[in-house]
Write a structure and sequence with these properties.
Blueprint (H helix, E strand, L loop, with lengths): L1 H23 L27 H11 L12 H10 L6 H27 L2 H12 L13 H16 L3 H12 L9 H11 L13 H4 L2 H14 L4 H4 L11 H10 L7 H19 L6 H12 L10 H4 L4 H10 L4 H23 L6
C-alpha cells in the first residue's frame, strides 16, 4: 500500500506540475503528437507521446512504414494495438495505461526483489532513488521503458526463485521490447550455472532457459531477414539518427573535451549521468552479483558505443542494479539521501515540463 501511495503522490504531482508548466512556459513546435504547429493546438495528454512516443504510436496505428521505425522493437506497439481493441480504438489511452500500470507493478516487484536479496531499508532507498531519478517521467510516458523495466525485474525475481524457464520467457519478451534486453541472457546463464554448481555433470532440462531467453530478439531478427534480407536492420537504420559503432571511451572523451563551455544543456546531462552510473558500477563490483553487474554495464556501454550519448539519461533507467547500488551506498547517509533525492526530483520536474512543452530532453 505504501508503494501505491508513493506512486500516486508522485504521478499526480507530476501531472499537476507539468500541466502548470505548459501554461506558464513557452511551448515549442516540433511536429510531434500533442505539440503545437501549423493548424494544431497543444494537447497536454498527447504531448506525453512526443518524440519516440510518436513512432510507437504510428507503428501501433499503421504498422512499420518508414525505415527508421524498425529501430523500435515490436512488443510495446503490439500491446498498444491489442489493448486499444477493448478501448474503442483509443491508442493513446491504451499506451498510457500500459506504461503506468507496468511501472506501478515494476515498483512492487523491484521492491520485493531488493528486499529479499538485501533488506527493507536498502529496497526503500533504491525505490526512492529510482522514482526520483531525473528521467523517471519516461516510465509513465508513451514509451517502452516501463514495459522493459517490468520484464527485466520479473526476470531477476524469478531467477532468484530458481524458476528458470519462466524467467527466460520474460527475458525473451524484454528482448522483444528493447535491444538491450538481449543482455538478460547473462543473468539467466549465470543463475543456471550456479544452480548446477558450474558442473556439466549436473546439466538438466532447465538449460533450455538460455536459448529461450533469446527467442524475442531472434524472432524480430527473423522477421527483418525475411523482409529486408538483413536480420540486423534495426541497427542499420540507426544511421538515421547519426549513430554508428564507436568506442564508448572515445564518445565520452569527445563529450568531455570538445566545446566544453558551449554545449547544449542535454550534452552536459548526458555525459554527467553516464559517468555517474559507470562510477557507481565501478565501486560496486563486489556489492552485487557479477551477472547483475555485467548486465548493467552492457545496458550502459552498448548505447554509448554508437558515437553519441543522446538519450542516455533515459536508457540508464534500464540499468536496474545501479539503483540497488545507490540504495546500498545511501545507507546511514541521511544528508546525502535528502540532497540526491530532492535535487533529482527538482531536475525531473524541470525536464518533464520541457518534454511536455515540446523540447527534446532524452
Amino acid at each position: 500500500m505504501k508503494i501505491l501511495k508513493l506512486f500516486l503522490f508522485w504521478r499526480i504531482g507530476l501531472i499537476i506540475l507539468t500541466f502548470l508548466g505548459s501554461l506558464i512556459f513557452p511551448l515549442v513546435e516540433n511536429g510531434g503528437i500533442g505539440a503545437i504547429g501549423a493548424g494544431r493546438e497543444f494537447d497536454f495528454w498527447a504531448s506525453w507521446a512526443q518524440w519516440d512516443g510518436g513512432h510507437f504510436y504510428n507503428i501501433a496505428k499503421f504498422g512499420y512504414s518508414g525505415p527508421n521505425e524498425y529501430a523500435f522493437f515490436p512488443l510495446f506497439p503490439l500491446l498498444i494495438k491489442f489493448f486499444s481493441l477493448i478501448l474503442f480504438g483509443n491508442l493513446l489511452l491504451a499506451g498510457f495505461l500500459i506504461s503506468n500500470i507496468a511501472f506501478l507493478i515494476f515498483l512492487y516487484i523491484f521492491y520485493e526483489l531488493v528486499k529479499s536479496k538485501y533488506n527493507q531499508k536498502t529496497a526503500t532507498r533504491a525505490l526512492i532513488t529510482l522514482i526520483s531519478f531525473p528521467t523517471a517521467y519516461f516510465a509513465v510516458a508513451f514509451y517502452s521503458e516501463p514495459l522493459f523495466l517490468l520484464l527485466s525485474a520479473l526476470t531477476f525475481l524469478l531467477l532468484e526463485k530458481r524458476k528458470f524457464i519462466e524467467a527466460a520467457i520474460f527475458a525473451s519478451f524484454a528482448s522483444f521490447t528493447r535491444f538491450v534486453g538481449i543482455f538478460l541472457v547473462i543473468p539467466v546463464t549465470f543463475y543456471y550455472l550456479e544452480s548446477i554448481k558450474f558442473s556439466f555433470r549436473n546439466l538438466n532440462l532447465n538449460i533450455i532457459s538460455i536459448p529461450i531467453s533469446l527467442t524475442g530478439i531472434i524472432s524480430y531478427c527473423l522477421y527483418l531477414f525475411l523482409k529486408f534480407q538483413d536480420p540486423f536492420y534495426f541497427l542499420t537504420v540507426e544511421s538515421t539518427w547519426h549513430r554508428s559503432i564507436t568506442n564508448p571511451a572515445t564518445t565520452i572523451y569527445y563529450y568531455l573535451t570538445e566545446n566544453v563551455t558551449n554545449k547544449p544543456f542535454n550534452d552536459y546531462l548526458d555525459v554527467f549521468l553516464t559517468l555517474a552510473f559507470l562510477i557507481i558500477l565501478g565501486f560496486g563490483i563486489r556489492k552485487i552479483s557479477l551477472s547483475w553487474w555485467l548486465f548493467s554495464l552492457l545496458v550502459i556501454i552498448v548505447p554509448a558505443s554508437t558515437g553519441t550519448l543522446t538519450s542516455m539519461p533515459r536508457y540508464l533507467l534500464g540499468a536496474i542494479p545501479v539503483f540497488v547500488l545507490a540504495g546500498i551506498y545511501l545507507k546511514d547517509r541521511q544528508f546525502m539521501q535528502i540532497f540526491i533525492w530532492s535535487s533529482s526530483l527538482i531536475l525531473q520536474v524541470v525536464l518533464a515540463v520541457m518534454f511536455v512543452n515540446g523540447r527534446w530532453t532524452a
